[in-house]
Design brief:
This protein has about 475 residues and is of the alpha+beta class. The chain contains 18 helices and 21 strands. The strands form 7 sheets. Strands 17-18-16-15-19-20-21 form a 7-stranded mixed sheet, with helices on both faces. A 4-stranded mixed sheet has the order 3-2-1-6, with helices on both faces. A two-stranded antiparallel sheet has the order 4-5. Bound molecules: adenosine-5'-diphosphate and 6-deoxy-beta-L-fructofuranose (LRH). It is an enzyme of class 2 (transferase).
């Protein structure tokens, strides 16, 4: 007997509700609903339009029905809503690209040294980690009035069911979780003056958190906590056959790394800015955040959204590695004027600024592939995890040029797909909680493999060209610093 499952997957560029039909040996899915997402500037602050997202979820659940067996939600990480004593939302959640955290990590590290934080959380310093957002919000009337903080998927889950929980994979991106024990670090909270009571109890993926409330209009359906961090679900959806793989989860961001059984909390890993994010079934994603297709999205927006396929074809015809930028540079986090900022980064590092959109797109994709190479190699070196294949999942798996360049840069085969890996991972964790499928991550991944068309890219060209480009970039970056 099969089940019908709704996987709600909210990415930074679009939200989607996927309807899955799953039996022990079969997985089918169709897109029930997709809606746009992105930052909304209100005054000086960038927000998410969280009620529009909630409406998109409701529309999607109704479209995925009429009879659902369960629902699960994942979204981008780190962001949250605050509830007051009556349970009302205190303001629109702030977007992680907002400038309020500029300079905040240094101020926090003056109170708790970065090395001490890393020793507990194992988290890469990104200015938007929840810990820094909360530090930026200290002293605001909103935070003073807040009685509960819920991360975005948990906030939506709360509105759908009434439950108040924090799913642990997403909690690991807050900077307030102990990566070894998978529990809140109350010590870090008190050291930074963050009220412990703000945080809801933790649940592991696979826990039923409640049932849809009547107003949702989709029946009394269980809501299951999944890997609610989209990257956690995406890595469940990686169709790997062994542990010897690296993943590049490419959408708005590229999340690049390996899967481990335990965190690596070394000083070398901290210096290299690697994160230990918690995964499904007790796993750890040892990865680096690379700026991702945000660079391309923002260029397209600036150019009035021209046809992407034509532009990618033109970029494929451009000479490679003419100019590359550091796709890990936090300077690219804010929105706006991306073509000019990339051109300026090229000039600043003594390279020719790309003269046409096609050349600029080639520069972006070369830079991403180079950053993928760096992160795959460093993840493997720093963790000791052998890598013999790179899995590219997410929207970027559709970008043939990016997949080929990633294979060339890594000197390893790339297996691309599924595009909707996060929805797969989300749905399969629900199916297992319902008892329809059994086994661990290898069994879930076998189901992904059997139900998806994957594309394999063999590495081409001279790998030393990528090594030289990496060395040049490192030298230029340190020279220009
Ligand atoms: P997110 O979940 O962060 O919103 P997605 O995983 O949906 O991101 O990926 C979105 C990205 O996928 C787009 O920015 C675009 O670069 C890429 N993409 C989507 N469709 C195509 C396509 N047909 N060809 C090439 N790239 C594509
Ligand atoms: C990708 C993602 C990533 C986070 C970023 C904020 O969607 O969840 O893993 O670092 O958004």
């Amino acid at each position: 007997m099969g089940v019908r499952i709704a996987a709600v997957d909210l990415g930074a560029s679009s939200g989607r509700v996927m309807a899955f039909d799953i039996a022990a040996d079969r997985v089918d899915f169709a897109e029930a609903h997709r809606f746009p997402n992105g930052p909304v500037r209100l005054g000086d602050t960038l927000h998410w339009d969280v009620l529009a997202l909630y409406q998109g979820v409701l529309d999607g659940l109704r479209a995925a029905g009429p009879r659902l067996d369960s629902v699960g939600i994942d979204s981008w990480a780190v962001d949250y809503g605050l509830l007051d004593a009556t349970g009302a939302l205190l303001g629109n959640p702030v977007h992680y690209r907002d400038a309020r955290t500029d300079g905040v990590p240094d101020a926090v590290h003056a109170r708790v040294p970065a090395a001490d934080l890393y020793g507990v959380t194992g988290l890469q310093v990104l200015p938007f980690n929840t810990i820094y957002q909360l530090a930026a919000a200290q002293g605001t009337p909103q935070l003073a009035a807040a009685r509960q903080l819920l991360l975005i998927p948990d906030l939506l889950g709360h509105w759908l069911t009434g439950a108040r929980v924090t799913e642990v994979t997403n909690a690991s991106t807050t900077g307030l979780l102990d990566a070894r024990t998978r529990t809140w670090s109350t010590e870090l909270m008190s050291g930074l003056g963050i009220a412990e009571g703000l945080f809801a109890p933790l649940v592991e993926p696979g826990t039923v958190i409640g049932e849809l409330l009547p107003h949702v209009g989709a029946g009394s359906v269980p809501v299951v906590a999944v890997g609610s961090h989209d990257t956690a679900s995406a890595v469940v959806g990686v169709p790997a056959t062994t542990r010897n793989f690296a993943y590049v989860a490419t959408g708005t961001w590229s999340l690049v790394g390996v899967e481990l059984d335990a965190p690596v909390l070394t000083e070398a890993g901290r210096q290299a800015n690697f994160s230990n994010e918690l995964g499904v079934d007790g796993t750890v994603r040892y990865l680096r955040n690379v700026m991702g297709l945000w660079l391309l999205q923002e260029c397209l927006r600036e150019w009035g959204d021209p046809d992407l396929t034509g532009l990618l074809d033109a970029a494929a015809g451009e000479p490679g590695l003419t100019a590359v930028v550091d796709a890990g540079d936090p300077a690219f986090i804010p929105p706006g004027d991306m073509p000019a900022r990339i051109a300026a980064a090229c000039t600043r590092t003594g390279q020719p600024a790309p003269g046409t959109p096609a050349a600029l797109v080639r520069c972006v994709l070369d830079s991403l592939a180079l950053a993928h190479r760096r992160a795959v190699r460093q993840a493997s070196d720093l963790s000791g995890q052998h890598v013999d294949v790179v899995h590219v999942v997410g929207g970027g798996a559709r970008n043939r040029l990016l997949c080929q360049l990633t294979a060339d840069a890594c000197g390893l085969p790339v297996i691309a797909g599924p595009v909707e890996a996060a929805a797969y991972g989300n749905a399969l964790v629900q199916a297992r909680a319902l008892g329809v499928v059994t086994g661990g991550l290898p069994e879930l991944r076998a189901l992904v493999r059997e139900s998806t068309e994957l594309v394999r890219y063999e590495p081409n060209g001279d790998p030393s060209a990528w090594r030289a480009a990496e060395e040049r970039l490192t030298a230029r970056e340190s020279g220009a610093a």
